[in-house]
Specification:
57% helix; 418 residues; disordered N terminus; binds protoporphyrin IX containing FE; Cytochrome p450; two-stranded parallel sheet; alpha/beta
């Protein structure tokens, strides 16, 4: 089924809404986009069973829910699973990325330097940058105490991207919050990264998500490609620590498209995930007494270094929320070998089976057992040996950004006077 033809009517309706600059309608567009991705996530979560033994065959494929089996699938020690399905989808969107390549020379060639550069960003460095930007964003509000976390996220994440990736550059890619995504140029950051990500990583995207994911991904590939070509034409190199490291890893102008995909892939790894975990965390704190309780703890902390205070007071609560409501809640694999999975109620897996890796169930198993571990939401711990091939290289950077923003919004109301 071709989504381009089947969805053309919906697409043109969406386009006309997007073109309308009336405030009410663009807010409606934002809400609709939001609905699409959250509803989709909820549908996936609701469809997930929690079988005894941690694995079950369902009508849609093999669902893996226990922490042990989720980590076993991520580690993939027997090479039973492939990530190739990601690139089958990415090909029509942002273009193939190394997260969609199984381990081998091509994966190594594309990923080694890029992942090393990402792993070089420390939690403290990311914390300090995010803290500074969040404080500036709060200060610009008429009433900082009445902040909207999505708003703060949009502003701070655009600044984070500009600092580490040179994008948004203001010309080819413009700064624009998640609700500003639309299917027309110019590309927007962080807005346009949500739909390719949801489309590629959710196990079962529907037609609307497929169309949005393909279209916004194409916009990004073209825009970042043009941005890089214009830098090369001007004899310039990127200023961001990560975009510069990637640029040096792929110095030939012939690699321009590959370089654009590496940059977009890393940004896509970061943006919707940080945004999702941030929103879920802060909104949960605001709904309960946690927000005020954390303010009290910050006031009473004897730590003088802000990073240490944030780690002492905010980080445990942040990790717990990430375990409760992680983004991504699930990812997927394709089985490539016949094998049995699980020991209690094992499931016979056949080549071609789709494997749903339920991160949310694995995280909640830990929560129930009183274990604090956010590694499953990052696809494993890349610093452990052995580690899953695709485990996130951005864990430290991501936790630093999340910590910087959450600390800043809690701290500004704690009366500590910073
Ligand atoms: C809360 C924030 C983040 C979460 C929850 C997250 C989650 C993940 C997950 C689950 C994977 C593995 C997917 C799979 O195995 O199917 C992954 C891979 C990846 N992430 Fe992250 N990520 C986050 C932040 C970041 C950041 C900040 C960056 C870079 C700036 C990044 C870049 C990447 C890259 C490049 C990969 C692919 C690694 C490879 O295939 O070698 N991520 N991430």
């Amino acid at each position: 089924m071709s989504s381009d033809t089947d969805g053309s009517k919906l697409f043109s309706t969406l386009g006309s809404v997007a073109r309308t600059q009336v405030k009410g309608l663009s807010a409606m567009w934002g809400m609709m986009l939001d609905q699409l991705s959250t509803n989709h996530a909820r549908a996936v979560a609701a469809g997930t069973v929690n079988p005894e033994g941690g694995v079950a065959r369902t009508a849609d494929g093999v669902v893996v829910t226990s922490k042990e089996l989720v980590m076993q699938v991520f580690l993939n020690a027997d090479e039973n699973y492939s990530v190739k399905g990601y690139n089958e989808r990415a090909a029509n969107s942002i273009g193939p990325i190394y997260l969609g390549l199984d381990w081998g020379p091509q994966y190594e060639q594309q990923s080694t330097k890029a992942n090393a550069a990402i792993m070089g960003v420390t939690r403290r460095e990311a914390f300090e940058f995010a803290l500074k930007e969040t404080r500036a964003a709060l200060k610009a509000l008429p009433d900082p105490a009445a902040f909207d976390i999505q708003n703060i996220s949009d502003t701070v994440l655009a600044a984070v991207c500009k600092n580490w990736f040179d994008v948004p550059d203001g010309e080819f890619v413009q700064a624009g919050g998640f609700a500003l995504s639309n299917i027309l140029p110019p590309a927007r950051c962080p807005a346009d990264y949500t739909y390719p990500s949801a489309y590629i990583f959710h196990p079962d995207p529907d037609v609307a998500l497929t169309m949005l994911g393909e279209r916004t991904g194409q916009l990004l590939r073209e825009a970042v490609g043009k941005f890089l070509a214009s830098l090369r034409a001007a004899g310039k190199i990127p200023q961001g620590a990560l975009s510069r490291a990637f640029f040096e890893a792929f110095p030939s102008p012939e690699d321009n498209d590959l370089l654009a995909r590496v940059i977009i892939g890393a940004m896509m790894g970061m943006l919707p995930t940080v945004n999702g975990n941030l929103n879920a965390t802060v909104k949960a704190w605001q709904r309960t007494s946690t927000f005020m309780a954390l303010q009290g703890k910050l006031k009473n902390s004897s730590q003088t270094d802000e990073f240490a205070r944030a780690q002492e007071v905010i980080e445990p609560a942040l990790q717990q929320e990430m375990q409760m409501a992680p983004t991504p809640d699930a990812v997927w694999r394709t089985a490539v070998k016949a094998h049995t999975l699980g020991s209690k109620n094992p499931v016979q897996v056949n080549p071609g089976d789709k494997i749903y890796v339920s991160i949310i169930q694995a995280m909640q198993e830990d929560l129930r057992a009183g274990v604090t571990d956010v590694c499953p939401v990052f696809g494993g711990n890349r610093r452990a040996a052995p580690h899953p091939v695709h485990a996130c290289p951005g864990l430290e950077m991501a936790m630093g950004i999340l910590l910087g923003i959450t600390y800043a919004v809690v701290d500004q109301q704690s009366g500590s006077g910073r």
